[in-house]
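Figure caption, in words: inputs first, then the predicted bound structure.
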Amino acid sequence: MQASEVRPVPTADWVTIPDLYDDPYPLFQRLRAEAPVHWVPAVNRYLVVGYEACHEIELDAERFTADESGSLMKRAMGHSMLRKDDPEHAAERQSYGGVLRPRAIKDHWNAVFEKNARIYLDQFKAAGPGADVVSQFAAPYAAENLRLILGYYNATQEDLQRWSQTLIDGTGNYADDPDVWAAAERSSAEVDAATDEMLAHLRDKPDHTLLSGLSHMPMSLEALRANLKMTIGGGLNEPRDAVATTLWALLSHRDQLDQVLADSRWADAFEESIRWVAPIGMYPREATQDTVLDGMAIPKGARLGVHVGAANRDPALFTDPESYDINRPKVPHLAFGGGSHFCAGAWVARASVVGVALPKLIAELPDLRLDPANPASIQGWVFRGVTHLPVLWT
Ligand code: HEM
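Bound structure (protoporphyrin IX containing FE present):
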């Protein structure tokens, strides 16, 4: 590209955090129409909203490091692989071995997902003829699955939910709220204590869990603890949100639910739902040099917010991108990230949500419907999901 074609990054001082939190999509439409990257003072970042630009960043760790300076995630959880570049990142990722991969899911975790779906569906049905899908099914189901995959036999699914939420809150504590830091620090200490206890136990009594696998790996205790906190933070809310958002989408588009049921198209329903509302909307990267990103001039040290939630609705790639449509032409979405940090838990998410939770929920409660008196609420822009999904059945 000629230097003359390089454009300066515009400033979007009209973007506010409350507007983003409430409904970021109209803002993304306006941003994308002007440029793929903007300096957004309210979030103190270069917000990347174009698909091509997000994808370019994911594939080029030389120019865009994951190890951003002043990372709140590092403060809340320690320095995990998610904030490292290769080769350090690759070594730690490799130490996860096959625990989250298809073979282990087939041999061990599918049975766990089935059992947990049974437990939490029975509780959900007993609460009826109306209940909240998020708090009364999706959250405990996702938490218990993650607890058993990781190997925290010394904790409860409620502990996992508390740890995950408070650590994530710390990661997003841009307001520097001392109470948020205190809660994150308490959870961090609890996770470390539980981790140390389980490592000692599983070293002698190995099994299929992640903690068991990691107990034999040559990784520093500091890195190991940070990686487990990152996985607790990243492996719970996303499958929870994917269950709730997919169900909400299908119950609001009954014609598409009929098509899903006719041909068992749960995978299409799930992939379209995480394209439409990406559970992890934004993650950070930092420019290591003065560079050009999709025609925009980016200075060295720029703190970028890679917004895959916005990229997933880029009209350059997706026709009628604001609609939920399981029949849209297949274009790879970016909801699981890309490049070397592509989600390590994507198989677990697909197996537990597509393979078990959604089909079971609808098979056992075929007349499930939205509660007209209690509309669903959906919030967030860094993480986005349905926070309450009140439903009824007969
Ligand atoms: C629908 C569900 C999920 C979504 C949308 C999702 C999304 C993502 C995204 C976008 C990233 C990359 C972030 C970045 O590059 O900064 C990521 C990384 C990661 N995810 Fe997921 N995730 C999901 C479920 C899970 C589950 C269930 C687990 C664990 C059981 C998990 C474990 C991880 C780990 C360990 C990484 C770090 C990978 C690395 O740095 O190499 N995720 N996920």
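Residues 178-204 form the longest helix (27 residues).
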